[in-house]
Amino acid sequence: MRSIGVFCGANAGINPMYSESAARLGELMAEQGIKLVYGGGNVGLMGVIADAVLAAGGTGIGVIPQSLVDREVAHRGLQELVVVETMHERKAIMAARSDAFIAMPGGFGTFDEICEIITWNQLGIIKKPVAFYNINGYWDKFFEMIDHTVSEGFVKGDQRENLIIESDAEVLLERIRAYADATSDYWVDFKRI
Questions:
Q1: Would you say the pTM of this structure is higher than 0.90?
Q2: Alpha helices for the chain (secondary structure H)
Q3: Considering only CA atoms, which of 79, 182, 172 is closest in space to residue 127?
Q4: Which residue of 50, 57, 58, 72 is most buried, as measured by CB atoms within 10 A?
Q5: How far apart are CA 146 and CA 40, in angstroms?
Q6: Residues 133-157: tens digit of each pLDDT
Q7: Spans of all domains in the chain
């Protein structure tokens, strides 16, 4: 596991547990030599996890649209900051440079990003582990909705079973690694869509 794409909020949320947990995940990624690939911001949970990775001696790779750089929200301390024109380019580059994905708490942008990755896995465009860092039960309602789509026949049960949900950062990384190790054709190259 060389790199993980992390999708998360540009806000920190109202519960300090979100920032504390984001920092813990960043520390663990750095300790395990896993590069952070994320949206390139210096605000909210994005800034927290990036700062934690860097403080622990890890590598941070940000991918950010020029419009957000212009708003001065780009993290300037990263080893690499990739500036793109569109959100579509951002997601494609993050998908190409990540071996797995984690959704932390976030808003509409986070939902969009992780759902697109799930869809790409479903369509066979990529085949990479998808996990949800369920801090403070944040993703519980989301998974209730997914379970509802399964029961109503819109999502297959095995597609639901392939999604990892975990509230402990260390166990989350272990489960991602175990999933990747158990999947024989895991290292599928990203294909342009």
A1: yes
A2: 16-31, 44-55, 66-70, 87-97, 108-123, 140-151, 157-161, 169-182
A3: 182
A4: 50
A5: 29
A6: 999 999 999 999 999 999 999 999 9
A7: 3-179
